[in-house]
């Protein structure tokens, strides 16, 4: 295996650049890379591997970069799979891993989590062409003999497939925890009804459909049941026929759990680096979170959508692709966030299942993009740094670190806030414990997932973490000290 990987590296790089190949190999650990679609990609891949960027640069300080091995260790991520897209083609793909981690290559499967939603939106657009499914009619016709319980929907404001897909149906249950393989797994309908063994409550229609944006994996699970019942075909099979096969996503599947014979899969890890029970949790909520895929396959999906939007393809006409990518509220279309104008216009999504964190972004006009998939709960930090390195290497118009100016704190107020805090709303697996520290010179926040992160004062009552991008605001709630951590309210812990 190691010999095969080295041959791939040498093919990726110019034949005369053996010393550069060795330097790149040291940075990657053991990495499998596909051949470049553009000349000079090997040099760019090397720069990216050694040029990871934090979310915030501090004015007056030298730009700080990190190599991929430093950050894999820092975030306790075992491996990360990356695919870079240029001009509507996969320019290169690689898997970076810690030397002690299990073998991984560009065919290794990762859980894509909420990135699944974009494929669900594309599936709906494909199926509406069959006249068996309607985007703008009540979904109750596809749910029979069951129907949605009474809520805020009405004949004038029905729950439709479109508003389920763009998160304006008023549906509840934002996300799902997953199920260890050793536990009983609910059906999708049990998830919607909140019936045992479901771990989440029943999905309700809490606001008038179309009136507000509320991110809802529960809504996507309703869409899942509606599509498979209207087409009388299991959802995973609909996806295989209508999305995965047409886009040549040969390694991708919505099988939950994966067949036991599938050995080339990543194993998820908690924030402390320990392995998720059974390697990965099971997600019966396929439309919302069920995709297993590779970075290269996700790149093929992004390319398929972008090309359909730009010129129309056999996969989707321009009309359907543009409908798919037309945002409703909160810049959310049918499974994608769509932002920017002109050269900045792009669609994107991130995903987080237990032990897996991933992200991608695709520019609509240029056909440039990036996919990052990780097997760790801290992978969102790593993914953000890789995206910034890619954007910097290719001079993309977005994703640059934001610039923060230092400013003195009100020291009396700041030192009074030193102590331990708990978020008012916390969904982490580990202790809800944030500690603000000051050693007389430097400020630090100790977080429950990545531990200590440097803070830089930016105003009399504010600091920023260059690493996470979080702004920390020092506030009062009556006589009680509190923090806003990235906009989330945290009160003093009883043990502070």
UniProtKB/TrEMBL annotation:
<dbReference type="InterPro" id="IPR012338">
    <property type="entry name" value="Beta-lactam/transpept-like"/>
</dbReference>
<keyword id="KW-0732">Signal</keyword>
<dbReference type="Pfam" id="PF00144">
    <property type="entry name" value="Beta-lactamase"/>
</dbReference>
<dbReference type="InterPro" id="IPR001466">
    <property type="entry name" value="Beta-lactam-related"/>
</dbReference>
<protein>
    <recommendedName>
        <fullName>Beta-lactamase-related domain-containing protein</fullName>
    </recommendedName>
</protein>
<dbReference type="InterPro" id="IPR050491">
    <property type="entry name" value="AmpC-like"/>
</dbReference>
<feature type="signal peptide">
    <location>
        <begin position="1"/>
        <end position="39"/>
    </location>
</feature>
<feature type="domain" description="Beta-lactamase-related">
    <location>
        <begin position="68"/>
        <end position="379"/>
    </location>
</feature>
